[in-house]
Amino acid sequence: MIHVFGHQNPDTDAICSAIAYANLLQRTSMPDAVACACGTANLRTKFVLRKAGQNHPKLIMDIRPTVSDICIENVLAGRAEEPFMEVYRRMQQHRLRVIPVEDHEKNVIGLLSLMRLMHLLIPDEQDLGEQRMLNSTLSRVRSVLGGHFQHQMEAERDEQLVMFIGAMSEDGFHQRIGDYPKEKLLVMVGDRPNIQAAAIEIGVRALIITGGYQLSDKLLAKAKEQNVTVLCSPLDTAMTALLARTAKPIREAMTTEFISFEKHEHLHNIREQVQDARQDLFPVLNNDGSLYGVFAKSDMIDPQPPKIILVDHNEFRQSVLGANEAQILEVIDHHRIGGGLVSREPIRFINDTVGSTCTMIARMFRREALMPDPGIAICMASGIISDTLFLKSPTTTDVDRDMLAWLRNYIPFNLDDYAQEFFAEGSTLSISSDEDVLASDRKAYSENGWNIAISQAEELGMERFWERKDDLLRCLDDYVNSNDIDFACLMITDIGTQSSHLLVSGHPKILQNIDYPAEERRLYSLPGIVSRKKQLLPQLMWIMNRVHK
Fold it and tell me: Can you give the CATH number for the domain in which 61 is found?
């Protein structure tokens, strides 16, 4: 999957260029491209998405590889009460050495390895006395033998059975069988009526008739009187005795001490824990504890990084968390180049001096001779209208005008009326908290050792700003004091008058070098300035390079 991301705190151009470029890629070279966002759309952008009939891009706040990126889903698992033979056959069929074990509610409760499974059949020398013991149900025994009951009593009951082969004289049978509690005895015998009768007379728990034979009617009637379960095995006595052991439930062999991970855990957080673990297979769990998948140690050696494309930005500080660990395929932007972007291999990097990234995407549509669907055309036009203030910003170029005129052909309504609706929609100052006003369109930059953040809000009229400026300034101070930020400002742009006001907070060395006309303490007038990218940012960068920490 190819993730197409706009920048953090996305504006309309970031959201719409991601949607449009993902659509272009799906129709050309990358059918698995997906539009993504590392922040939710603001009100104006939500208005655009409604008008365009487009869903919000997939919200991903962190692109760093997670456990779910390397695990295998839909894996084979055992249930704790399943008999050895059934699980062993499945593991052999799929060539698995280790599988997770689930309980009845699908929670992972252990791991089962072939080595521990074989220990059920071949115990250590000091455990040979346990060979006769079989913790199981008579139904499981019947299942692994492929036999049938002539008579059964509580065949589903879990119990401890003592296996005994009646391959001896009747005297010898009576002599040896007395060493075991009769209510636990599981006697296996072939066509030996005298041994069969003796076992029934004693009242053993169950009698297995081997070799494909059945109990005579007379003895069967006696068995029913004595409450002796009778099971017929199609196998000879030797094979019956061997396979009966495989009726043990796998819970006896599984290990309950194991390491598991939730599917959203990041690989860099668990790498050391996995490397030091003695187990080779690691269950991956859903939030409710159920099994999502598994991964092996070898899967951690060289995991494939996520593949991403950046639009409307080219700086890691503005990108989705983890972008520096991803494989960046392309960058399409119209801002300054900065922020230490480094790729592992050559990439397609397009940066142009136009007013909107959507302008660049629209130009690609036209070059590919692709007709955009109305919804995609509305998105691209909205990105251009937003970033160029409907072609009135000083960032506007002839290319922006040309592409917006081209997009009009694919939009089923009057674009001039739509632009007025767009700017009237969702005044940030009317509906958002102070914190949200600052965060809704904030971009971070680094220059000459200084870390700065510039927020911008576009309004029709400044009435709400004058009512809230003191509160906004206090919030700006709080943001600077609680973050690794040397300078932060809020640029409030009046779309109607094509001018702005600037609230500032931060290091005194920076503040004393701001030379815009001061209206009040830490409030400046910016007549004719509406572009953060082309007008405000270059001036602040000049100050950062002039002033040393």
Answer: 3.90.1640.10
Half-sphere exposure of 258 (CA within 13 A, CB side): 23
β-strand 229-232 against 206-209: which pairing, if any? parallel
Spatial neighbors of 502 by CB under 8 A, at least 6 apart, are 489, 490, 491, 492, 516, 523, 524, 525, 526, 536
Type and span of the H or E element at 330:
strand 327-333
Cα–Cα distance list, 181 to 43, 163, 235, 518 (Å): 78, 11, 26, 100
Are both 127 and 159 inside the same structural domain?
Answer: yes
- Specify whether the backbone of 9 is left (phi greater than 0), alpha (psi in -120 to 50) or beta: left
Using CA atoms, how far residue 392 sits from 81, 333, 340, 384, 386, in Å, is: 73, 20, 32, 11, 10
CATH number for position 142: 3.40.1390.20
Average pLDDT, the chain: 91
Range of the domain at 242: 121-247
Using one digit for the tens of pLDDT, what is the confidence trace for 336-394? 887 778 777 889 999 999 999 999 999 999 999 999 999 999 999 999 999 999 999 98
* Cα-based angle 331, 334, 336 (whole degrees, multiple of 5): 90
Closest listed residue to residue 352, CA positions, set 297, 314, 304: 314
- The SS3 call for residue 446 is strand
Q: How far is residue 257 from each of residues 23, 111, 298, measured CA to CA in Å?
A: 48, 8, 21
Strands 291-296 and 72-73: antiparallel
Q: What is the pLDDT of residue 94?
A: 87
Residues with Cβ within 8 Å of residue 539, at least 6 apart in sequence: none
Q: Does 243 share its domain with 126?
A: yes
d(CA 156, CA 142) in angstroms, rounded, equals 11
Site of tokens 């009576």: 174
The full 3-state SS of 447-496, as one line of letters, equals ECCEEEEEEEEEECCCHHHHHHHHHHHHHHHHHHHHCCCCEEEEEEEECC
Q: What is the DSSP letter of 182?
A: G
> Hey, how many other C-beta atoms are within 10 angstroms of the C-beta on 193?
13
Query: Which region holds residue 200: left if phi is over 0, alpha if psi is between -120 and 50, else beta?
Result: alpha
Q: Are residues 468 and 538 in the same domain?
A: yes
Q: Of 70-79, 95-104, 339-348, give the lowest mean pLDDT range.
A: 339-348
Report the CATH number that the domain containing residue 527 is assigned in CATH.
Answer: 3.10.310.20
Give residue for tokens 């209510």: 183
Domain's final residue, options 378, 407, 424: 424
